[in-house]
Each structure stands twice: as structure tokens, then as C-alpha cells.
Amino acid sequence: MKVELLSDFNGHSEQLRSLLIPGHKFDHLRVLERDDQKLIVTSKFSFLSCDFIPSDISQLNSHKVVPGYIASITEKGCFVRFLGGLTGLASVPQLVDGFVQDPFQHFTVGQSVRAQVLEVNLDFGRFNVSLKQSVCYSTDTNLIKGYFLEEEKIAELQASKADLAKMNSIDSIVVGGVIKGVVQDIKEYGIIVDIQNFKDFVGFVTHFQIDSELKVGDVVTARVLDVVKSDGIIDLTLRRNLVKLGHKSNCEGEKAGRKRRRKVLEIHQKALGVVELIKDEYLVCSLPDYGNAIAFASAHDYNIRVDPHEKYTLGQSIEVVIGALPEDSGVGRLLVLVASFSDPTGGLSVKRRKMLRKLNSEGIIHGQVVSVGPLEMKIKVGKNSVGKVHVTQVVDEFQDENPLARYSVGEMITAKILKKSKHFDDGVSSLCYELTLKPSLLGNEDQEESRNCSDTTLSTLSVGQIVIGYVKDVHDDWALLLISPTVIGRLFVLDSSTDPIQLARFQSRYQIGQPVRCRISKIDYGNGKVDLSLRNLDNSSKDEEASEININDIIGGRVSKILPGVGGLSVQIGAHVFGRVHVTDLHDVWKDNPTRDFKVGQFVRCRVLDVSRNEDGIINQVDLSLRQSLIESQLDAAAPSSSNKRPDSMIVEKLEDLHVDMEVEGFVKNIVSKGCFVTLSRKIDARIKISNLSGTYVADPEIMFPVGKVVRGRVISFDCATGFVELSLRRPLHNQQRDETGLITLKELHVGNLVTGVISHIASYGLFISIDNSKIVGLCHISEVSDNHIGNLESHYKIGERVRAKVLKVEEDRERISLGMKNKYIKDLRMEVESNEEEGLVSEQSLGTNISAETNDADEDRDLGDDSNLHPLSTPVFSVFSSPVEPLDVVLDTEENKLTDDTSIEGVNFATTNEVYESSNKRAKKRSKDLREAAIREAERKLVEGDNVPESIEDFEKLVHVSPNSSFIWIKYMAFLLSLGDADKARAVAERALQTINFREEGEKLNVWVALLNLENVYGDPPKEATMAVFHRALQYCDNKKLYLALLGIYERSDQHDMADELLKTMLRKFKMSCKMWLKRIHHFLRRGLLEAAHKTLDRALLSLPQRKHIKVISQAAIAEFKIGSAEHARNLFESILRNYPKRVDLWSVYLDQEIVLGDATVTRALFERVISLDLPPKKMKFLFKKYLDYEKAHGDEERMDYVKGKAMQYVESRLG
């Protein structure tokens, strides 16, 4: 049993804890929760005395008030627990009847409360409760009764450790009885009385209970007001009126007291009480109308804990309700309830209560307007009463202007009372009425019905309902709208319009008190929030779908991030909802780098293309389009498509729409060594091999085909099952005929032809030769270059060198040609070639084709010369071309691609004969072996780089066997196992990796440790302990600083702020001289909005770090402040540095850059003016003037640019002068 579960009173809980000993038996306990190992029980009297406490959500009924206790307190409210772990949330608005700034100021963990059930959601197993005193007040005296019963128990426990006779002797003293004593001492706080026959107890009389002068030794007759057995104190009164009546009440049959006692005490009767004593937990009162009987009342209720010494005064008259008579109370005392706990009029005079009842019965009042504001109008009612008309209580229907604007000060109006409350003005209490002017309610004679109709609460609202809100306040992104006096809705900027111009004018569009017709899009009952939207107002449906984001909706958005490459845009479309715009959906007319037309914070109009949700119906991803043609077609179904859209800019959304040789367009997405990837639409990407990028050589694909470039190609192949699409940007050579220049085509070349050309590219596996008088490039494999072995081709040949070769193979379907340069291939044709060289021709017979006379004439000017005259071109021209082959396109252990003696590269057979591999000489065998090993290495590389993605455990086992030191492969292996839901196997793979990777590969091992930390942070049992266990292990093997930073990143990405805080403290203790660590902590606080903590951290950093690091840490902290903190504080930091280092141009430049990003032109220009007025060397001033001019070019006009140029000229003239 927890200490707080011992009693309803904190003081008793502590006393019982100190007195209870092992073996003590409780008469009654109540089981709160049960599990396999233990029971959680309580001895709270509020639980023991209640017949019904719910233990299951199905037992709950709305508006039912049941006892419970506070299980925990957060910023969102209090969690109230009942039996069986059943827990409900009391949100902040439902804690008390007034405003709550901090829930911890009103409630404590373990506090006994009474809770009213508000709403029960059986589907989600959740329910909300209210702790407001106005609905959860006590209806019996069990609270004070439990207090006195526990007092008896505490006294018994004390007596068991001391003298039992003391306990028995005090039982003869009766509360309200009369006893005699002797004044023993007179103190400032009261009189000590020695009571005869009760040496272990002392009598005490407060000065309020004395009506005559006394001195030490006087014998007095006193009346007992209270007996506190645990403290050994008897509270007495010496006032004659109380003592006399108490004495008479002990004398039965005295006629003198009959008149005073003619009223008989009855349960639930109301009576006037006078406060005689004020204790910490209860009040002792006398009841004048009932013979000054002594009664006891709790000083507070379950849900309100106040200091009774501040709330009550001695002699104060209060209204009480008889709760239990002495003979029935179980504690021998008269127990009463303070009426003000439940009756808001309990503290009013009889006259005021009669007036209030009269007003309540009539409901209609007349008053004079004393003030009119945009949200409220005050009305004077009678002499001392005030009425208020809320802006939402004026009209029934929507109007374009503020309904309060029609009223003026001094005007007499008629209104209807809705509610009443107390109003305090300069300490004077008066009644305040909440009124309504709605015509529908003024004509309703049933006041209760009128109150219900006007009382708009969260429970009466529904998603999709159209309501009228009145602007209360407008912020950057939110407008607060009053729906009723107690309900405030929020309108997010992106829900206010779909027009980007209107969205940019959000703050200026709304004025305080302006009426707005809107639709409820979301209700958060737990936090008491209502989200509003201006979308779908014309839709009469009240379904929740009408307020959600649906396909084909036209909505407003704001660019939140420009994604790198061709990632497109991330667009915010709701308070917490973001969508993605694919690069192909940015414009109707495609152009290179389309994202450059957008900037972060820009408002746009979007069309919803697709919405994906999880199993709970929560939105995961929204695909959007900014294409004007799609937006216009949705806004007006009859509108034609945009005239600016090119007919050939077709976006292919489905693979089924493709066909071979179809021309398509796309954006270059990525460049790799073997080609590039192109995105055709948001769902389809295509690959273009480097051999298909162009018909000529491409020197640098990244320059010729940068990311974001628009390209047009044709479909070579595609697979609907796998989603694979391959394109080519080359024109099909086999379909070409000779053009006007007479270029040779692939169709005209045959095996055995002798050709000449220029080496255009050298690879480790062969030479690429650009054939003369054509656009054809052939490959001469390294095995076909020479009769002798050549280890390094680059040492024997150079790009641009002219060579002869023989056509070995022609593949028209794949548009490829294989060449050979061995001497034996051209030996039989040497004489014929040499004779033709003298004329600069290649014979028609040698080509084996009927080349026209025009071709021969064109070749007459070509002078090949002999072998000794072959030399590299001085300025080789590189056309748009890429290699037509990939090195060793081999897949390991597959049926179709086993390494045989016919090793091929992308289908080009370099061993049409078996002489390479069937040769018996050792050199040929070694070359064959080298080729096989190269093929294996290339296949492994392709698997690692993702060309052939591993799809099974066997695939990964082969990879880790081949590359045991590659952390990339091990981590991919772990991720694959996690995707199968097997965290244990992933953990085992990580352990294998740590054992396998060579100890010298520290970076690789660190990667695996970090991956294991990420795994335990998600799948550990429990995650916190598992993560820390791995972390402490890793510290023994890894760079501690890097490991700490990695774990910090894990905690921050998973929003574990508490763990991140603890880790940062440890890091600063361990690396207090590291500037990076201090900056990490500053960034951590700034991201969480804890600006004060970040500032204090910077101060600590400056005390710990050496002087040489101060500039770095201050400047970096200032940059962070500009981005995610306070711009004003960032300016102060920069100014503090520049005061000491005014000639540091690098600091001025960074300062200017941050102000430019912030966007305040006035501040930025003022800073530029300060900078150009500095006395710096010309080179530095030139840099600053250029930066100023660039700024004005981007943000200013011609006049501003001329101004900067003039300032620069003035500087030059001053230097020359």
C-alpha cells in the first residue's frame, strides 16, 4: 500500500506511516488493482464508505459522480483512477470552475477526489471526467467523518505504545459538556487550563473564547468545544452565553432552556452556524438556533483544498446543512456540511437570495448599456448588479458585421438571463448576469429550455457542423474564434482559403469581433479544443469526411521544404499535415530545375491526387499537384486544359500505358557510374544505361545530364510485374539511312570489315573506338587488342590515338559492334590497306559494302599514313556519348549467368573463337582466371550498390562472406531481418558483425554499434535499459565522443527529451572542453523552445571553454538563435563579438547572411550601412560593397543599386584622395 493511499488526508497518511508496525491488522481495506504478483489496496474512508466504484468502462454512465484518486498530473490535466486500473482524464478546462494556469497548484498525486463522468468512448476504451466543484461537491459528511475515525485510530496506536489508561480516561469528556479547571498559564496565543482528574490532558482557551479578565490560579467553568486525543488537548470556551447554554443542556427538564431548544435537529436541515474554532482540516461551529449545539464541518471538500485560516474568521456566520446527528454519526459528534460548497448563493443574505429567486423566476430583465466592445457589452441592472451580453448571444443567423456594433452607450435593452455569478469590483461583491439577446430565446418562456439552447459546449458540437465564430485574436498562423462564451475554436491559416493571395493576407483579413461562418473540422474533447475550417461550407453534409482531405480537393498550402534533387516540394496543408508535390506535378510545362521557382514559406494552391492512411484512418501521406490545368479542371469541369501545356509533355501514371518505342519525358533523378535514373511520374522511374545516353561519347555524364534536367527518350523495355522501365536517348541506328553527309550506318558493317577510327575512351577491360565517317563506337576487348598480354592499356594507348581494327561481331538488335586489333586479323589485308592509304581511301572490297562515289570523294582528303605516323589528336572533340557496355555484367550463382569460357560483357562476345580460353599456354590460362575473378568482384559490387538487391537471407550470407568488413552490408542485413519482424535475429547479426569486422576497421565497427543502438531503442525490452547496456559495451571499443554524439542523435530523433538531457549532462562533464558538445546542448534547448536554458548554457560554456574558442561558440550559438530561437538575442550575441573584433569581416558576413535570411529589409540595410562605414583595407571593403550590391539586386530596385554604387565610389575617392 502506498503512503498516499492510507488516508484521504495527507497529514494522517504521514502519521499512520510512522505509527504502523509489522503485524498490524486493518479492519477494512479495499482492493484497487490486482495482478499476478501483488494487490494494490487502500484504507481511504472515501473508498471504504462508497457502495459503488466503477472497475470497468462499461459500468460508467454520463454525469455520474463517483469517488477516485489522482494517479498522475501532467500539463494536459489530471488522470483520475478508480478500481481495476480504470483511469479517466480530467483536462485542464475541467479541473476547476475558474482559470487554471498550473494543474499542480490545485491537485496532488494520491489526492482523493469526486469525479463526474462526462463522455465515454467504448470503441477506444477512453472516457473524460470533470473535477469542477460546481458538479462534484459532497452530498454527505463522510469526509469529516473519516477524519475523526482516523483520529481515533491514531490515538489508539499512540496509546498502544504508551499508557492505555490515558486513552480510557479521556472517554468521559463529552464534546459540548461543562467541566471545571484552574488557570495554569496565560500566553499570547491563549490560556492554559489545568483540568482536574485529567493530568495527561491540558485545556486550551483561545482569546476569542474569553469574555472577562482572568489571572493565574482562577477557577473557571468551561464548555468543551473539541477533544484531540492524539495531541492530548481539550479545546474550551469560557464565554458565558456558550457555557450557560451548555450547562443547561446537561440539566434535563429545565424550563428556562425550552424556548431555545424548541427547534429539533433534523437531517438535511439548513441552519446558521458561527465559527468558534478553525482547525487545519475542520471547523468547530455553534448553532444559535439549536441551543448553541456544537457542530463540526469540514473546512474544504475533496476537490478544493484551501487554507481555512485565510477563508474563515472566528465569529463568522456561515450557512450549514445538518449531515449526521451525534448518536448516528459514529464519532459521537454533530456533523454538518458548509452550504457554500454546493450552493452558489449560500453566502448571500436572505434579501439578496429572494431577489435572485425573483429574477430567476421571471428571466427577463431591462437594463441600460454602459459599454460596448467588439466581444462583449455591459449592461447596468438595478443599483448594484451588472449584466454582460457576449457577442455570440446577440443574433441567431450569420451577419456580415459585428452584431454588437448596432448598440450604443445609454440605450435601454431587454434581455434574458442565462446564468448568474459573483462579480468583484474593488473588493465589493455584486451579482453579475450572463444575458442573451437572441430573438429565438427572448420569446421562449421556459427559462431552463432557453439555458440549454444557449449553452453551447463541446458535447453539443459535432464534426462537420456549420457554426458562427467571432474573431477573438489573430496570430501568425492561427485565428481564435468565439463559438460561445465557453467554447473557443481555432482557424488555421491554410484552412481559411485556397487562394494564395488571401492566405498571404491572413492577419489583415480578420478583425477582432468579425463574424466568420465556418465548419467544425475536429474536436479534441480531452484538451477542449475545436478546429475550424472554411472549406466545404457549401456542402450541406455534416459527415466527418466533408471536413477531411479527400482526393480531388482543391486546398491551400505553404511550401515547408524544397527537397534536394528532383524530390519536389514538401507542402504544409494543415496544422500538422504535410503533403508532397512530385517534380512532375510542379508545372504544366516542364523545364530544368523546376523547384527554383519556389521558396520556403510561399503559399500555393494544390489539388489532392492521392491520400494514404494507416489502419486507424490517420493520414500517412498526401500526394499533391500544383499543375494549373488540373486545378482549373477541378474548379470548373467544363474548363479546357491549360493552353500552356505542351501536348507531348505527357505524364505516364501507369505502367500499362507504356509500350516499346514510346517517346516519354522525364527529369534526371540520379547519375551513377553506369548511367542515370529518370523519374517519369510520381510512381514510375526509369533507368538509362550509359551506353544509351547518346550515340557519341559523353566525357562527363554529370555535366551533360545534371540532376533536374528534362530529357526525352524512348522506351526500350518494361516489366509491369517488377515496375522496371528502361529508356534510351539514342536514335535507333538500324533504322537510319545515310544522310546527306554520307555517314556509315550499323547496317552497312559486316564481320570481317577493316575499319579505322579514333580511341574515344579507355577502360580497364578494353578500348572504345569511334569509327571514321560514322557515329558508331565499337569495343575492342583487352583480349583482342594485341597478340601479347597487355596489363595496363593506358600505358600503351591514349585517347585520340588513331587505330585500325577488324569487325568481329555486329549485333543490330542491341546496336553493338565488337572489334579486334590483333596483328593476325589485319595481316592478310596489309598490302591492300597500304595501297589504299596512299590515296587516303579504304577500298570498297575491304569494307564489303557498296559505298557510293560520294563517300570515296569525301575520304580522299583523309591521310592515314603508316603505323609510324599514327598519333593522338592534339585537341580531341568529345561528343555526347556514353560507353555502350558495362564492365562484367555477371550475376553470381544463377542459371543464366554462370561463368563459362564464353565470358561476355553486356552481350558483346569477345571470344567468338575458343583460342583465348582453350590455349594451352600459361599466359592465356592466367588471363582467363583474371577475367573470372574480375567478373566475381564486379557482381559483388553491383549487389552492394543496389543493382541486384539481395532478397533472401542466403543472398546476404553470400555478401557478408565476400565482404566481411563492410558495415554497409551488415546493416542492410539487419534492416532486412527487421522488415521480416525478427528483431532477435537482427540483434544476432549485429553481434556477428562486431566479432567479424577487423579490429583495425574502427569506423565500420562504430557504424554497427550505432545500428545496434537504434535497434535496441525501438525493440529493446525495455528500450531504455537495453540501449544503455549496448552503449556501455560500445564505449570500451569505440571513440567515446563519436558514440555519445550518435546516441544523442538517436534520442533526439525519437523525441526522448529526458534521456537526451541526462546524456548531454554526462557529455558536458566528460568533454567540457569541447565546443561541439556545448553547442549540441544549446541546440537541444532551442529546438524545445527553452530559450532561457539555452542562454544559461552559453554562459556556462564561456566559463568552461578556453578563450580561443569563445568566438566560435558565440557565433554558432547566434546562428542557431537566428534560425530556431530569438532573433533579438542573436543580434546581441553578434554585437558583443563585433565590439571586440570590429575588423573581422567573416563575422560581419555571417551576421549579414542571417539578417538577409530573416527578411527584415530595414534592419538588414541598417547593418550594411554600419559595415560599409568601417575603416577596412580595400580588399575587404570590396567584398562588403559587392555583398551589399548583390543584396539590392535581389531585394531592391535600380535606385537602391545606384545608391550602393555611389557609396562605393565615395569610398574609392576617399582612398585615392
Description:
The chain has 1217 residues and is α+β, with helices and mostly antiparallel strands. A hairpin with a 2-residue loop joins strand 33 (663-672) and strand 34 (675-679). Helix 29 (1075-1087) packs parallel to helix 31 (1110-1124) and helix 35 runs antiparallel to helix 36. It is elongated. The protein starts with 9 loop residues before the first helix and ends with a helix. Mean pLDDT is 78; it is low at 250-262, 344-350, 355-362, 638-649, 733-741 and 830-920. Residues 837-868 are annotated as: Disordered. One of its GO terms (biological process) is rRNA processing.
Beta-strand proportion: 15-25%
Biggest sheet overview: 5 strands, antiparallel
Q: What would you call the structural class?
A: alpha+beta
Strand line-up in the sheet with most strands: 5-4-3-6-7
Number of DSSP E strands: 44
Q: What is the typical, i.e. mean, pLDDT? A: 78
Unreliable stretches = 250-262, 344-350, 355-362, 638-649, 733-741, 830-920
Coarse shape = elongated
Rg measurement, Å: 46 Å
What gap, in angstroms, lies between the N and C termini? 91 Å
User: Helical segment tally?
Assistant: 36
- Summarize the amount of helix as a percent range: 25-40%
